TrEMBL record:
This is Uncharacterized protein. It comes from Avibacterium paragallinarum.
């Protein structure tokens, strides 16, 4: 049965990350072994008659078909754990917001790809609303830098080489630069860790332990509202998906 749940880092994971921020390290594994399937509005071959829309029901139908695709040599056999996470919305702005949060917690390519395409579609829709002035003929633009990109790249390489050569005479300056870069990396890691600790997203979740045939028969029960036309669905299959299940509240 599908349930609307809040996704966050598990308490044990949060504690481990907070300890790392304090300089306390301990053996802790976040690994999850298994396979996954992903589908969203812009997945190749997924297109409804009404356009580039994907309802929760039709997203699940795609997964059901894969669960019973016996020609797939990588199809899991026997009893497995299944965890499905669905981001869905009726409006593209809400869909983008949810995907941005989901991509922090679950930075899988499928969610990132859906987010990129959704943003592009929103930008395209907005641009269609802007009436452009009619231009009879192309006109000259004010004088500007029209250096080819290849030349720009070479210039950047030469600038970096010259900068490195001039700094090589001053070992103290090089040491200071290395320290600054290290501090910058540590700051970025700190920001990523803080974002993870605070990340939260509402999603529809489904969990089941059974054979894929049985899951295929039940996964379409209590599906989210069909009025949601934007959907991104990730389905995980494995023997032990505890780390994923513990994210659900």
């Amino acid at each position: 049965m599908w349930k609307k749940q809040q996704l966050q880092l598990p308490p044990q994971t949060k504690t481990a990350l907070q300890n790392v921020q304090k300089g306390i390290t301990s053996p802790f594994s976040l690994s999850v072994q298994g396979t996954k399937l992903g589908v969203h509005n812009w997945t190749h071959g997924i297109r409804e008659d009404s356009g580039r829309y994907l309802s929760p029901e039709n997203a699940v139908k795609v997964i059901q078909a894969k669960f019973t695709d016996y020609s797939d040599p990588h199809r899991p056999k026997g009893e497995v754990q299944c965890v499905a996470i669905m981001i869905t919305a009726a409006k593209i702005a809400d869909f983008i917001t949810a995907l941005e949060n989901a991509a922090v917690l679950l930075p899988y390519p499928e969610f990132k790809q859906a987010l990129d395409y959704a943003k592009s579609q929103q930008t395209l829709s907005d641009s269609k609303m802007v009436k452009m002035p009619t231009i009879g003929n192309p006109s000259f633009l004010p004088s500007a830098d029209i250096t080819p990109q290849s030349a720009r790249t070479l210039q950047a390489v030469m600038r970096n080489a010259n900068a490195t050569a001039s700094k090589s005479l001053d070992p103290m300056a090089m040491l200071a630069e290395l320290k600054a870069k290290k501090a910058e990396r540590e700051q970025k890691n700190q920001e990523k860790t803080t974002a993870l600790l605070n990340a939260s997203v509402e999603a529809y979740c489904y969990t089941k332990k059974a054979h894929l045939e049985q899951i295929a028969l039940e996964i379409n029960q209590h599906i989210p509202n069909a009025s949601n036309i934007f959907t991104a669905l990730l389905v995980f299959i494995g023997e032990d998906l505890t780390n994923l299940k513990e994210m659900m509240r």
